[in-house]
Amino acid sequence: MTTPSHDKQPRDEAYWARTSTLKINRVPTGALNLNVEGRQLLSPLQGFGQLWQKNFRIHLKGSSVKPTEVIQMWKENFPKFWPKWDHYYLPLGGIAPGEVGLINMLIPGNIPVGLPLSTGVKIIYSDDESFTFMTPQGLMFAGWITFSAYGEDDGSTIAQIRMLIRANDPAYEIGFRLGATRSENWLWQHVLTELAATYGVTEPVQTELVCIDPRVQWSQFWNIWQNAAIRTFLYKMLAPVRWTIKRILH
Amino acid sequence: MHFVNTTINLQQVNITSNSIEHGSFSALSHQLLLDIRTRYDAESTGSITLNCSGLESINSHGINLLIMLLIYSRRQHKRLLFFGLSEHNRYILQITRLNQFIDIADTTTRAVSVVHTT
Predict the structure, then answer these.
(1) How far is B57 from chain A (nearest CA, A)?
(2) In this predicted complex, what is the ipTM?
(3) A121 CB near a chain B CB, below 8 Å?
(4) Which DSSP symbol is given to A90?
(5) Which of B58, B94, B96 sits opposite A134 (nearest CB)?
(6) A78-113 per-position pLDDT tens digit
(7) What is the DSSP letter of A180?
(8) Is the pTM of this model over 0.90?
């Protein structure tokens, strides 16, 4: 991919990532870097399942914090708002355009047991009031997640997570339809609840779920080849084999 | 049908704040979608054409808008055609991989040609 010329720099150029491929420069301590390196980003049109728009909002009532302050704090403390058993590893460069965050989690995500999943997300856009993750091949869904904050007329601030996603492959789609989507919704509601708690706010999370396109895309069936959950499971299952081979070779 | 009547100039779309009135895709604008639907639902043309020469920037909310447009155009069996895109905005469509679903013409002349061959 070529990069844009710099003859006349657009005002949003610095906010955008510069490639659509995932590359990790340094793996954080304790993180498993699997199903990330060299993966391509997928737009919501390149997934398999139904296309959903999900909005999660929390009103930071009683707090005088500004939207830009919320986003700055959110970027700096992003992993802290996740459940204890799911790990998002902040990239070395922080939440900034082009950085890749590793994810080691248990799916479905809302309980401390489940199928291990090692993957990552790329930060494709980041400015003072929002940032967006785009998902790669193998992750549960194809699409993007935008985290933003905006001011209300009364001077208060609303923090929001907006997702435009579809299950990446048939296996994930079946999982979502069997209830994993509720677990995933819980994850983002949990994130906003924890974020609000930072400001001493205990408000309910407003949730809007809209099915934009109910059809599945059979043309994307073979996305299942990159399924990160299956690959992570196999990787873990083969750990004794790798250990044995390593012992023999040394 | 005349080409001019099927083109939406992003600078001329009359919508409220947070959207594209300043030449940027900066929010998911239902108003813009309604405007496009109003124009295109009854049209027999096979293309939805957007003049992007006044489009200065696209942010993350604007990308959602593009997806909505793409979904709409697919449902209507119409192709989505952009012309007048700056190099930077083309680049954004590459990063987000939306360029695989949008026809991009370099010039108005080329866009007219594409529309007439649809």
Answers:
(1) 6
(2) 0.80
(3) no
(4) P
(5) B96
(6) 999 999 999 999 998 999 999 999 999 998 878 888
(7) I
(8) no
